[in-house]
Amino acid sequence: MKTTTERGPGSGQDDESAPCGRREEILEAATRLFAEHGYSDTVTQVLVERLQIGKGTLYRYFPSKRDLFLAAADRVMRRLRERVDFVIAGIEDPLDRVAHAIRAYLAFFAEHPEYVELLIQERAQFKDRKKPTYFEHQDNNVVRWRALFGSLIAAGRVREMPVERITDIMSNLVYGTMFTNYFSGQPKPSEQQAREILDVVYCGILSESERGRMGPGRFDL
Question: Based on the structure, what is the number of domains in the chain?
Fold first, then answer.
């Protein structure tokens, strides 16, 4: 990631001349620091020393360590959305769009295990929050995917079922895979995992004859 040139206090260059760049620089370094030491053991003085900035500069952007951490977690999800949007841009077929989105999601977290660590720490350290950052972003993002599956159902390409069921199941699959990879050391390449998820989701595990034998509504509860 491109960062601003590091400058010490008194260099004559105003930090506010590139506020977005400096903010991203701080969040990038903070993410690594939180992932290395954990939220409780992270000392912001170490961060300002790494970045060669004054504490006043840090507090100008983030008044507290809590604000800094939550902003870093939010950045993870913003970057995930940007990555997925970039990958699926220009892909017309909805099913192909879903496939590329899953691959992008798994590859994103495989490349950045420190982002997974932040999500884990948030759940452990900020139990007072009504909803973790991950799920806040998921709720905002899921609307477009439900509309996509709704269009596929209307076109007869996906069988009739609540779109919420589809998005919930697929979200849980990639979410669980992301954490399993983190804790087990990525047992398979993310590309292979994406293919296997898509194979099961798109094709199922039952043969056509078995699906016919069981009939509709077999699993209705």
Answer: 2
Contact indicator for 24, 3 with CB cutoff of 8 Å: yes
Q: Is residue 92 part of a domain?
A: yes
Question: Is the pTM above the cut of 0.90?
Answer: no
Q: What CATH number is given to the structural domain containing 135?
A: 1.10.357.10
Contact in structure between 119 and 76 (CB atoms under 8 Å):
yes
d(CA 50, CA 32): 11
Judge if 194 and 98 occupy the same domain: yes
Find out whether 157 and 167 touch, Cβ atoms under 8 Å.
no
Please give the residue that has the higher pLDDT: either 154 or 206. 154
Q: Residue 46: is its pLDDT beyond 70? A: yes
Q: For residue 133, what pLDDT band results from cuts at 50, 70 and 90?
A: very high
Tokens of 137: 């972003």
Tell the burial category of 58 from Cβ atoms under 10 Å away from its Cβ (0-12, 13-18, 19+): buried
What Cα–Cα distance (Å) separates residue 51 from each residue in 24, 30, 66, 67, 117? 12, 10, 19, 18, 22
Write out the residue range of the structural domain in which residue 87 sits. 66-204
Is the same domain home to 111 and 50? no
